[in-house]
Design brief:
Blueprint (H helix, E strand, L loop, with lengths): L7 H15 L4 H27 L9 E4 L10 E4 L1 H24 L2 H4 L3 H17 L3 H19 L5 H32 L4 H10 L7 H15 L8 H5 L4 H26 L4 H28 L3 H23 L6 H36 L10 H4 L1 H15 L5 H15 L3 H27 L9 H9 L10 H19 L1 H16 L2 H8 L1 H24 L1
Antiparallel strand pairs: 1-2
Helix pairs in contact: 1-2, 1-5, 2-3, 3-5, 3-11, 3-14, 3-20, 3-21, 5-6, 5-11, 6-7, 7-9, 8-22, 9-11, 11-13, 11-14, 12-13, 12-18, 13-14, 13-17, 13-18, 14-16, 14-17, 14-20, 14-21, 16-18, 16-20, 17-18, 17-20, 20-21
């Protein structure tokens, strides 16, 4: 793949959004054109992944393009490395599945007008975040993604949905303000926001100690977007109000972008700095244990499908943060750190597909029964046996049963926790997995296995559910089932072909734990020498000036 073609990951969804706006009065044309753009995007992502995986050496696995031919670190750099490539591939396939679900299951008043344009705009922001090579353009990508999510958050406009949207928008505006403020402080201290350049400074030990509080502020910003403890409070009350297709999209992309950025920033950029790791690793490990365990306890206590699944987003994030913390541990063997980060990456992509799949299954359950309250539904095993089977596969994968995908990610993380003697977080990880199994069996037993309740939905409730598009007199689920089958297929491929996915995740982890190939690919050897010489000269000039004073 020509490195300059990686800009297609921004151009394709942007073009799809523009075309969808022009076709806003032609719903069927929007669906067809949008699906074609998404399939083209998925093909490009697979092409990029094949290119970086089959490259002969570590430096050639990093595809870089300098916008306007301005050299890094002064210009805008876009980069696809193994981590970006695998995130682009799995997210693009997931978006195809969600698009099919939304095109067939959401009522016209939900999915009409500019819905598809916003869908592509959100995807543009997500993919831009995956390929950007500097923190300022990461901020821009976040804002594009969030602007689309603000509008998608109120699709359907129920009262509870709008109430939670105010909270969601306010907290994200606060997070964006902190983000851009931290970037200003960081640029003032380092003179750069280029990821490769900052990683080079961390490896050389030239990060000023005054930058550590600013880096910690970045952890607060990204932790809020990922929903880690204690910054998770906004998510459980917000996500359960959304239609299944939209919450599936949000669960697959938004918190996973946050997890991706945590890996990129704190493992690759600042992870080589011992001063940063000494401060942040204890915070990350404590947050990981509390996030996963309290999150799963909250999920077990809920009694509606969407609330259970929404809170599970939080508990699963804990495993990702656990891998990040172990990947930054000072004194741990390089191989152990690489495997911990590889486990976190594997777990992110597994969760992306499985969590989205479960939300779509929950939407189909509601289409059949008119409610997702476990006390008001039941008997779906007879009505929809294939849906019951697919839900069970995805649920057991989330719980981590072998040979499904969730098992292998957790196995790698728990094994490295034992290697690094992280006994407390290892215990929380195992308990969380057991409680996850309990909550998934709770949904399946109430919704599918138990007989239908003697008193079903009242007629008024049924009419309201039909009018709101939550159920149909004759359920239409063919398109939704196609989406679920696609995501279950992705999950099964990760379980049955776990070694291949782990190999790719390990390649990604190696370029993060040891970012020298990334730095060389982005900056080049000559540019590194020029930057070091210019900074040495500036340092000497400053010392001479202070001596004159």
């Amino acid at each position: 793949m020509n490195p300059h073609l990686i800009i297609l990951f921004v151009i394709l969804p942007m073009a799809a959004g523009i075309v969808s706006v022009l076709l806003h009065s032609f719903k069927q044309a929007q669906r067809v054109v949008g699906l074609l753009f998404l399939l083209a995007n998925a093909a490009c992502a697979a092409w990029a992944l094949a290119t970086v995986v089959t490259a002969p050496d570590a430096v050639s696995r990093i595809l870089t393009s300098q916008m306007g031919n301005w050299p890094a670190p002064f210009g805008i750099t876009i980069v696809v490395d193994p981590l970006s490539a695998i995130m682009l591939t799995v997210s693009s396939v997931t978006c195809v599945a969600v698009f099919i679900y939304c095109s067939t299951q959401l009522p016209t008043r939900f999915a009409g007008g500019y819905f598809y344009a916003l869908f592509h705009l959100l995807m543009m922001g997500v993919q831009w975040a995956f390929i950007t090579g500097d923190l300022f353009n990461l901020f821009v990508a976040f804002e594009i993604m969030l602007m689309a999510s603000y509008v998608l958050f109120v699709v359907g406009t129920t009262r509870e949905q709008v109430r939670q949207a105010y909270k969601y928008i306010l907290l994200n505006l606060l997070g964006s303000t902190l983000f851009v403020t931290a970037l200003g402080w960081l640029y003032g201290q380092l003179g750069t926001l280029n990821m490769a350049d900052m990683s080079r400074m961390a490896m050389m030990g030239t990060l000023p100690k005054s930058s550590i509080p600013v880096i910690a502020l970045l952890l607060v910003v990204f932790g809020g977007k990922t929903a880690i403890f204690p910054l998770w409070f906004w998510l459980p009350d917000a996500y359960h109000t959304l239609p299944a297709g939209i919450v599936g999209l949000f669960a697959a992309l938004l918190t996973k972008v946050g997890a991706y950025v945590l890996i990129r920033v704190f493992v690759m950029i600042f992870g080589p700095s011992q001063e940063v790791s000494q401060v942040l690793v204890p915070v990350l490990m404590i947050s990981a244990g509390v996030t996963m365990f309290l999150g799963v306890l909250g999920a077990v206590s809920m009694h509606t499908v969407r609330r259970i699944l929404s809170i599970h987003i939080i508990s699963q994030v804990g495993y990702m943060v656990m891998g990040i913390g172990m990947g930054m541990t000072i004194g741990a063997a390089t191989g152990s750190k690489e495997l911990a980060v590889a486990g976190a990456i594997f777990f992110v992509i597994h969760n992306m597909a499985v969590k989205c799949c479960l939300f779509l299954c929950g939407g189909l359950m509601q289409t059949h029964a008119g409610s997702d309250d476990l006390d008001r539904i039941g008997g779906l095993l007879k009505k929809a046996p294939w849906l019951a089977t697919l839900f069970m596969i995805a649920a057991m994968s989330l719980a981590g049963l072998p040979p499904l995908s969730g098992f292998f990610g957790k196995f790698v993380l728990i094994r490295e926790a034992i290697t690094q003697e992280r006994w407390v977080v290892m215990t929380f990880a195992i308990l969380t997995s057991l409680f996850t199994l309990l909550s998934m069996l709770k949904i399946w037993s109430y919704g599918f296995w138990s007989p239908a309740p003697e008193v079903s939905l009242e007629k008024a409730d049924m009419r309201r559910a039909i009018s709101e598009g939550l159920m149909h007199e004759r359920p239409r689920i063919a398109g939704g089932m196609v989406a679920v089958v696609l995501l279950v297929g992705v999950s099964l491929s990760m379980g049955l072909g776990a070694q291949k996915y782990l190999d790719i995740s390990t390649l990604a982890a190696q370029s993060l734990v040891n970012p020298e190939p990334y730095i060389e690919a982005v900056l080049g050897k000559e540019r590194i020498r020029e930057i070091e010489a210019s900074r040495l000269q500036a340092s000497r000039l400053t010392m001479d000036t202070e001596g004159v004073r």
